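TEACHING EXERCISE
Course module: macromolecular assemblies
Task: Read the component lines below, then compare them to the predicted structure of the full complex.
Student: A.B.
Group: 4
Components provided:
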Amino acid sequence: MTGLPCILRLTDGLRITVGSVVCVIPPVRLHAGQWMALVPENPDPAMDPAGTIARCLISLHPPTRGTVEVFEQDVYNIGYREVQRLRARLGFVQGYGGLLSNRTIRDNVALPVSEHARLPLEEETALVHRYIEAFGLHAVADQRPHMVDGFTRWRTCLARAMVLSPAYLVLEGIGDWAMDSGTGIAWRQLVAWHQTGRSGICICASRRNRGFESWLEERGGIVVEYKERSV
Amino acid sequence: MRPDKEERRIPMDILQRTGRAGFGFFQYLFMLVALFYLSIKVIWTNRDLGQRDFMRQVFLQIYFTGVQAVGPVVIVALGVGTLAIVSGLGGVGGMMSGAENIGKMVTVVVIRELAPLLTGGIVIVRSITAIAAELGFMRVQREIEALEAMGISPVRQLITPRIFGGLISFFGLNVVFNAVALVCGFVVAQLLVSIPAEAFFSSLFKAVTPMDLFGLSFKVVLGGIGVFVIACYHGMSVESSSTEVPVAVSRASLNSLVFLLTVDLGASFVMVLSNDANIFFGGMW
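Instructor-supplied answer key:
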């Protein structure tokens, strides 16, 4: 993997504090074309650190110790504007969707395009339409997030994260309902995107799902276990 | 006799509380000014981002705050225009009869004082509460975080359009209020005492000084910026619980009202003082 650009590098004994628990994450390198699942070694049913870990990997939550490098930049030692530029190149899928409630499903998918891509209106509309179709959102495109079910919200969030073809994609705490191991429409899109080899995909899970882990490993993915220690 | 420990503690306690309240007040003012500064700064620092969605947000705010409030503003302006003339001809008019004095009366009551205050009241009831609640719930539902994760500044996406769209709407609503109140005043004056249109409007234009227009603009611009910044600040102050939202809404509306009254009172006071100074210096002011 040395020839491929390094998307994510976690070094210096990364530790992330979540409530009364410290998550100790081993050194990791994620290259373009790779995907990785960060899973707890012995999951504590009372804790759900996946969301905080995912936020730490995209510069939203500083670690207690260690370095997080994205696109070879230490994300916690650069200015706000640089962080914004860096975030524009990545996609983040929140576990619960994280859609803007004052916008329709279509407008949610269109938001990063209109902010970062600055395409002519026709091209922007065509691009958004393509993703709406690809993720099976056509029927609900003009509805607001609260009018659709959780899985549709998650698909919309995935479409929004992928619409600008990000070089780094982070998925937060996916539940069993979303881990349909490549059979659902969203996963098919994700697998297709992985096969282009242009992006590093990181999945942060709160608990073990052996079926999903073996499915990932069969496709060349790596499963990284982190430890949870009480403070 | 020396006061005992308990008695000496009371004045210290009052001093500490006063100090804390004063510090808190200045800290609050500083945060409001900083938020307004940031909302302007992001226009420049994020100039490489798309403008289409930003403009859409500004127009949406103008629609929600301005266009949708025209009805209530017209109704209140009709009432105020009627009241100004009836009071002018009745109680006060007993002492100030004639078209010239009615013009003065309408100018003083409507343009100088009531237009910015009542329009501000309508904006606070309709929009300030809505903005604080919307932003508060967006914080609770982590929508602000979603924007941050996409590399989009929440200040540019949510606050700047609300402040500028709101300010434009506030200005427009004041124009509508004044126009409706003055025309309504004329109609009522016609019905009651048949004042000729020429006499009514010439007395009106004579009574309106550049200082009146400056004072009105000052109240509208400073008041408008202030109330929308306060709404955005309290909305964004919500952290993680939905129970914080009603508190934020109530603080935003109350503080906006106090701010608007302070600006109105301050501007009116300065206008009266400058008027007195003008008389004192023989019209040189």
